[in-house]
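Morning F.,

Quick status update on the modeling queue. The single chain you submitted on Monday has been processed. Sequence for confirmation:
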Amino acid sequence: MEGGYSIDDSLGLLREFYDSGARYMTLTHSKTTTWADSGTDAPRWGGLSPFGEQVVKEMNRLGMMVDLSHVSEETMQDALRISTAPVIFSHSSARAVTDHARNVPDRILLQMKDNGGVVMVTFVPGFINEEVRAWGAARAAEDARLKSLNPGSPDAVRTAMAAWVAAHPAPRATLDDVVAHIQHVRDVAGIDHVGLGGDFDGVDSLPVGVESVDAYPRILAALMNHGWTDADIRKLAGENLLRAFRAVEASASPRRGDRPSLATLPDDGAPE
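Structure tokens below.
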């Protein structure tokens, strides 16, 4: 589930989603909710509200993964302080490499390591390449300027924006940018705390060399050229997330009638 607004401020509805099969929830999407600050919207709570803290505790109790992609740094800190189980970032990258609010600062990477969580690196160009991020910010600023000069004239804004884009061609991210973010998360947090979180859905463009899922072998090969071992690649490609998932479920409070979970399966994920 992406966006905590889905539970409509109801722990009961959160439990219904869990009982229906949902096993993780992103606390916010791009907008701040009634109980958690987003990383790309004006803050309201300075992190989590008291109810937001209850949501994290209830997710821990249920055995539902807390996903901190999209949230503000303060929300990350609050969730890491409260959560008794590993958290995940399902599609985020490293802020030290690309200074976007959607990315994870090094100090949070270190806290996440202590928590046992996983950062799954996304491929969204503006999140992995600093030139693309800066171009996107400049484009947004020009769009806002044109709208202020042409209120009620969307056609004029579109025409002027098309001219601006033609005069300022967009830079492109590449597969090497993806590799740089994966490597940085590993360098700061360790091999046990990095994963892949592509986010192919809902983007206007993708990095050169990462246009579809057939890029995964190329990414893994590039990492192996940087000295990654087969064991390292297995962790990145899935074992780290499964380990965190099992830990979340294993730390949950027992609930009668629960269906079998990953926590009860052998390490290879196959039924016994």
